[in-house]
Design brief:
- By secondary structure, this protein is α+β, with helices and mostly antiparallel strands.
- The chain has a single domain, classed as Pnp Oxidase, Chain A.
- Strands 2-1-5-6-7-4-3 form a 7-stranded antiparallel sheet.
């Protein structure tokens, strides 16, 4: 699925995103993450096999949600919800997190901390299946 320009524009501003995965009992697990775009997928970096990584390896269904800075004509806060399927790849997480840190923290920051930079880490690649929420990305 192609990512709309309105979604690309929002992601470029560096909104903190809620990544929702499913625990083994079906309950949601929520983590705040930085998110970028590579090709037609959303990307999130992880330096370890945290619970979210374990969950996505078992069940690839995920949701990302984030607030947008605008309000719609009814004065409701705009927000984006992305439903998709995740796949985990090993390696490249430190470089991805460094690229995202320039957006989320500042142009001169070095991230992740030195102790993590030589570790491969993991990248979650999320193929979007639908976009919902309040904003230009919701055409329903």
């Amino acid at each position: 699925m192609q990512i709309p320009q309105s979604v690309r524009d929002l992601i470029a501003t560096g909104p903190n995103a809620h990544l929702i995965t499913l625990n083994t009992d079906g309950s949601p697990q929520v983590t705040v993450v930085w998110v970028g775009i590579e090709n037609e997928e959303f990307v999130v970096g992880h330096m370890g096999v945290w619970q979210k990584v374990k969950n996505m390896r078992r069940d690839p269904r995920v949701v990302l949600s984030m607030l947008a800075p605008g309000k719609n004509p009814m004065a409701l806060q705009e927000y984006l919800v992305i439903h998709g399927k995740a796949r985990i790849t090993e390696g490249g997480a430190a470089a991805l997190l460094q690229r995202l840190a320039h957006i989320y923290i500042g142009p001169t920051v070095e991230f992740p901390p030195a102790a993590y930079r030589d570790k491969p880490g993991y990248i979650t690649r999320i193929a979007p299946e639908r976009f919902t929420g309040v904003g230009p990305w919701n055409q329903s």
